[in-house]
Specification:
It is built from ten helices and nine strands. It starts with 15 loop residues before the first strand and ends with a helix.
C-alpha cells in the first residue's frame, strides 16, 4: 500500500475522514452485506473503502482525482474493487446493477447538485448513506415553515425519507473543515407513496416557487397557475413556498400537467 501523503485539493472539496471511531460508526450504520450492489462516491484515501470491502464481495467506487484513482488501483490491484474514474455529477447510476446501495463522504462543494442528480435514480436504490455538511442535512430534513426549508427539502423528501443519524466534529477530518458534518440515511419512498403525474413538471413547479422566496405563490407561480386555481386545490395563494408541504407541490404540479401549463 502506498505511503505517499496526498495533499487535499480545494477545487475538489476534499476533506478526508481521519477518525477510526467515526468510520466504524458509519460502517455499522450502513450494515454492508456480501451480496449488496454498493457504490461509494469519492473514496479518497480509502478509509471507508477498506472496511466496506471486508464485508462485501464487490464494491464500485467513483473518483474524480486522478492521483487518488492511481492509488486505488495500486492498493487494490485486482478482485473486489471496480474504480470508475470521473465526475459523480455526470455518472449514470443506471449502468450499475440494482438495487443500489450508495454511500460516501460527499465533497462539500458539490453536495447539493449531487443530491439532485441522485434523486433521479431513486427508484434504482435500496438506500443511501452520506456524510454531508450538517447544514445541508438540516435542509434535507427540514419541515415546512422553518428557516431551513426550501427547494432541496422538497425535492429530496419527494423521493426519499430522510433520517439524521449522528453528527461528526470538524477534528475528525484532514484538513479540518470550518463546519460540522452529519451522517444521514435516505430511503426511497414506496412506489405511489408521493407521486406526481410528471416528475419534470413537479421539479419545475418547485424551482419556480422557490426562485424568489419572498414572493407569494400568487406571484411566484403566476406563469403556471392562477390564484383561483390554487384556491380550488385548497392552497392559499397568499402563502409563500416555504409554507407548503410536498403533497401540496404535487397537487399544483398535477394540475399544471393536466391543463398543459408548463
Amino acid at each position: 500500500m502506498t505511503a505517499v501523503r496526498h495533499i487535499a485539493r480545494k477545487r475538489f472539496g476534499q476533506h478526508f475522514l481521519d477518525d477510526a471511531r467515526v468510520v466504524e460508526q458509519i460502517v455499522e450504520a450502513i450494515g454492508p452485506r456480501p451480496q449488496d450492489n454498493m457504490v461509494e462516491i469519492g473514496p479518497g484515501l480509502g478509509v471507508l473503502t477498506r472496511p466496506l470491502l471486508e464485508r462485501l464481495q464487490h464494491l464500485h467506487v467513483i473518483e474524480l482525482d486522478r492521483d487518488l484513482v492511481a492509488r486505488l488501483h495500486e492498493d487494490y490491484p485486482a478482485g473486489g474493487l471496480t474504480v470508475h474514474e470521473g465526475d459523480a455529477l455526470r455518472f449514470d447510476f443506471s449502468a450499475l446493477p440494482a438495487p443500489l446501495r450508495i454511500v460516501g463522504n460527499l465533497p462539500y462543494n458539490i453536495s447539493t447538485p449531487l443530491l439532485f442528480h441522485l434523486a433521479g435514480f431513486s427508484r434504482r436504490c435500496a438506500d443511501l448513506h452520506f456524510m454531508l455538511q450538517r447544514e445541508v442535512v438540516d435542509r434535507m430534513a427540514a419541515s415546512p415553515s422553518t428557516p431551513e426549508y426550501g427547494r432541496l427539502s422538497v425535492m429530496i423528501q419527494y423521493s426519499f425519507s430522510v433520517e439524521w443519524l449522528f453528527d461528526v466534529a470538524p477534528d475528525a477530518f484532514r484538513p479540518r473543515p470550518k463546519v460540522w458534518s452529519a451522517v444521514v440515511r435516505m430511503r426511497p419512498r414506496a412506489p405511489g407513496e408521493i407521486a406526481a403525474r410528471d416528475d419534470a413538471v413537479f421539479a419545475q413547479v418547485v424551482m419556480q416557487a422557490f426562485s424568489t422566496r419572498r414572493k407569494t405563490l400568487r406571484n411566484a407561480l403566476s406563469k403556471l397557475i392562477t390564484a383561483p386555481e390554487l384556491l380550488t386545490l385548497g392552497i392559499d395563494p397568499g402563502l409563500r413556498a416555504e409554507a407548503l408541504g410536498v403533497e401540496s407541490f404535487v397537487a399544483i404540479a398535477d394540475h399544471c400537467a393536466q391543463i398543459g401549463m408548463y
